[in-house]
UniProtKB/TrEMBL annotation:
Residues 193-275 form the Bacteriophage phiJL001 Gp84 C-terminal domain. This is DUF2163 domain-containing protein. NCBIfam families: phg_TIGR02218. Pfam families: Phage_BR0599 (PF09356), Phage_phiJL001_Gp84_N (PF09931).
Amino acid sequence: MSMSDDMRAHLSGGITTLCRCWALTRKDGVQLGFTDHDGDLSFEGIVFRADTGLTALALQQGTGLSVDNTEAMGALSDASISEADIAVGRYDGAEVRCWLVNWAIVAMRVLQFRGTIGELRRSGGAFEAELLGLTDLLNRPQGRVFQKPCSAVLGDGSCRMDLDAPGYRTEAVVTRVDGTRIGLDGVAGFDSGWFQRGVLEALGGAAAGLRGVIKADVVGVDGREITLWSGLGADLALGDTVRLTAGCDKRMETCRFKFDNLLNFQGFPDIPGNDWTVAVPASATATGGSRR
């Protein structure tokens, strides 16, 4: 935490005009501002609203690699944070910044906390969010896993596959919705099963920005039908546009023939299986120590 001389003098003056402001940035780019002051404030291009009822518990900060954390609580409302948006995961992993601000002179402020939203709970028209500091990233597992299937996520920095290349992504129009089964129109030139294990992303409507993993991809007499492993959390409507991304089953053959990306394959296809690792020397005849 870096503090200016003006802010330090204000804090030591005995009478202060302080409040806290939070900026929340979701992964889809939506940015919200909140403050516990009794009036709206604005800085860094963000309007911090005072009518949200958002409050925070004591901030825990430490030296070294200990994880900074706090919790924020607030009321659910359609104007700011809605229960529907929480339910579909729009706030999962959102970035949070917290300032201590002199509300009389907003330029006099200090950034106290920066991190992400962890566990988020909701009940009775209110929510409670766990806020995790930047050092929480050090708790994530690192390193390679020795296994036959590829350990990369299709299109990530290890895979390096360009999914925007022709043949791996396409847009379609929803023609039928039956739970997790979705009928599509406008998907031509792709074999049945091409998008299995891939991703469906809604581009418009109530589910815009939400993604689901594809369980099955079948081309039948009535057109193409996609089945998701679970619902998107918001309803798709007839006429909504979705984007389909090809799926990968992590096998070397798929990497080579479907994606032509064998040089970046992150698995170990020749690693011995479990049967080999537990095998012991054996002989069909008795071993009495002689040459025979």
